[in-house]
Amino acid sequence: MRKKNVLLIGSSGFVGAQLKKKLKTRYKVFSPSSRLLDLLKIKTVQKYFSKKKIDIIINCAWKVNSKKNSMALRKLNKSLNILMARNLMKVAKDNYIKYFLNISSINIYRPRSRLLYEKDILNKKNISPDPESLSKMKFIKLLQRVSGDYHYCNLILSNIYGFKKKNNSNLFLDKIFKNIFFKKRYKIYFSENNNSKINFLYIDDIIDAINFFLKKLIQKKLRHTCINICSEKNYYLKFILKKIEIMTATKIKFIEDSNNTLGIIPSNLLAKKYGWRSKTSLKNGLEKTIAEYKKIQKTI
Length: 300
Hints:
Strand content: 5-15%
Order of helices and strands: EHEHEHEHEEHEEEHEEHEHH
CATH topology: Rossmann fold
Strand order of the largest sheet: 2-1-3-4-5-10
Low-confidence stretches: none
Radius of gyration: 19 Å
Number of helices: 9
Number of strands: 12
CATH superfamily: NAD(P)-binding Rossmann-like Domain
Structural class: alpha/beta
CATH class: Alpha Beta
Number of domains: 1
CATH architecture: 3-Layer(aba) Sandwich
Oligomer: single chain
């Protein structure tokens, strides 16, 4: 029996690069650069699919930005993300692709003090109004419209952390670690009055979850189209920062920002029902991350 062909979109990103290594042990993986597969050009996408026999699509590709970027840039990226989604969905449908796994993030939810379940996606008041979030939600809705054509699932990933050497699309903890170990000068926005809880998930657990649910998808054992992927425990953000300060013997410098008073706390109840749960504790994840940064720091 031949290996299934997987088209991995977004393989140069943090998750995509790690996922590619894992997938290669079980599947034949195609991971074209945007130069070879420009999702913004429908004819380019059609031409690529005509030459490849693709069984599975895994989408990790998003044009991302920070909330500190201009609203004009954020809205532009929203429109580009939606265009990429439409082009990809059309060509996938035309080529009878059977399996589609879409990787999203918990920023599609609006920050709240209570747990957020997958059913909350159906309620507009629980969806973030941010442009980047709305574009990801659009992708989910597009998949729902063609649900009869694919076996598909949206994995909604919690806040990811781990060693990340590249400087593209740095998230909150990435910036902190790069400031500490690589002497970068990223601005860290935080408030000592911030009492919000937050969920962080180590990169190895993310890759494990994607592989776990990809197998379930191929076996046609998924009954839900959206699944939160998050760690077992939520922590106060100030607790995590203090822990990093202690483990690195460094005082984290931040800019006072009292706007972010609520976190996004996803429920992992559905993932647990399918038999998946995270394996890496916050302590072990931070230790592994710091060890990797120290290793690279010695070579700089």
